[in-house]
Structures are given as structure tokens and as C-alpha cells.
Design brief:
This protein is mainly alpha-helical and 213 residues long. It has three domains: 2-75, no CATH class; 91-133, no CATH class; 139-212, no CATH class. The protein has nine helices and two strands; from the N terminus they run H-H-H-E-E-H-H-H-H-H-H. It has a two-stranded antiparallel ribbon with strand order 1-2. Strand 1 and strand 2 (68-73) form a beta hairpin. Helix 7 (140-166) runs antiparallel to helix 8 and helix 8 (177-193) packs across helix 9. The termini are far apart.
């Protein structure tokens, strides 16, 4: 009985630590069933483990989420080569492919850039990009207006931090959700209607974005 148990245990160890990792980029050693989830959950900073793994294994490495391998790319140049220059080859969404039947059962046919796949996704993405280019995406006009609104956001954040320091509440920190939502909404509103959001429009911004969250 003991030799059989040792044989099965050895086979499981070989499969988990060697066989299932074949053909994948190097990465941290996964634990059975939970993968590298324990390391990520134990870290106080969500992205700290990924930075450590990038320094140890290089710009491309494999992380295991449970029994699912995920290849992580951390170099900007490689990201551009993979997802821009050769984007069609890496356009698949394995996660959404698995959830597609559940989405279709609950909501019917799926549309949009986020929840579609394959040829429908390509057509939808092409239309969305063309529409955004018509509105100024990729042109100096859009960049200039975005930077203007970005500087406004940075000024608001600095004033908020200064206010917290004056009240001795610096350790409380601040949430950037409203500021980022207003930055995006203000830029879009300026393109469509010609005016950016002012400070008193923050409540209006949240009123508009809340139904979509």
C-alpha cells in the first residue's frame, strides 16, 4: 500500500511542478489547486508580487491562478509588439470565452467591445476606433484637451491633500475614483459639447456614471 501511495504522490508532484508547466515561460512555483494565489493574497500591495517576479524571471513569466496559467508581459516594447503590431494573434479572451454561455443565457446576444469575441469583436472594435478617431482620438487636439483636464485634476488632488494635512487627516488618504471619472467625462464632454466640467459639476458626473458601475 505504501509504495502505491508514494508512486501516486510522486506522479502528482511531477505533474504539478514539471509536466503542466512545460512549454510555458518560467515563473513562480505554483501550489497545487491554488497556484500562486496565496502569494498574491498575502502581499499588502497588489502589484508588488508582479514586480518581484518580473525582476526574477524577466519581462515575460507565467503566473498560476488556481489551475489556470496566465502569461504576464511587463515590458512596454513587448506589449506593443504583441498587442498592437501583432494584435490579431493575441486578441482572444480565454476568460470571456468560458463565461460566454452564461452571459448569453442571462442577457441574450452579446454586443460591444468588451463582451464579444472573434469576427464580431473585430468589426465592433474597428467601428469604435473609427468613431473615436472622428472625435479626435490620436490627434494633437485631443491630447491638448486631455492634458488641460489632467492638470486640473492634479490641482484638485493637491488641494485635497493640502486640506487633509491642515486638518491632520493625511493618514486617511483620498479616493481618486471621482477625479478620474471627471477627467474622462470632462474630456468627452469638451469634445462633444465644447465645454469642460467645472468643480461644481462633480455631483453631475457621479450622477451620470453611477448607473454604469
Amino acid at each position: 500500500m505504501l509504495p502505491l501511495v508514494l508512486l501516486l504522490l510522486s506522479a502528482f508532484i511531477f505533474w504539478n511542478f514539471v509536466w503542466k508547466r512545460r512549454g510555458l515561460p518560467p515563473g513562480p512555483m505554483p501550489l497545487p489547486l491554488i497556484g500562486n494565489g496565496f502569494t498574491m493574497r498575502r502581499s499588502k500591495c497588489p502589484y508588488a508580487p508582479f514586480q518581484q517576479w518580473a525582476r526574477k524571471f524577466g519581462p515575460i513569466y507565467t503566473v498560476w491562478l488556481g489551475e489556470e496559467p496566465v502569461v504576464v508581459v511587463t515590458d512596454f516594447g513587448l506589449m506593443r509588439d504583441l498587442f498592437v503590431k501583432d494584435g490579431d494573434a493575441y486578441a482572444g479572451r480565454h476568460f470571456f470565452v468560458e463565461l460566454m454561455p452564461a452571459f448569453k443565457a442571462s442577457r441574450g446576444m452579446l454586443y460591444g467591445v468588451v463582451r464579444t469575441e472573434g469576427e464580431l469583436w473585430k468589426v465592433t472594435r474597428r467601428f469604435a476606433l473609427q468613431s473615436m478617431r472622428n472625435l479626435g482620438m490620436g490627434r494633437a487636439r485631443l491630447e491638448e484637451r486631455f492634458l488641460q483636464n489632467f492638470n486640473v485634476m492634479i490641482g484638485a488632488v493637491r488641494r485635497k491633500i493640502a486640506s487633509l494635512e491642515e486638518r491632520g487627516e493625511k493618514e486617511n488618504g483620498i479616493s481618486l475614483d471621482l477625479q478620474i471619472n471627471r477627467l474622462i467625462g470632462s474630456t468627452i464632454n469638451q469634445l462633444l459639447f465644447g465645454n469642460a466640467f467645472s468643480d461644481h459639476k462633480s455631483t453631475h458626473t457621479m450622477f451620470v456614471t453611477t448607473p454604469f458601475n
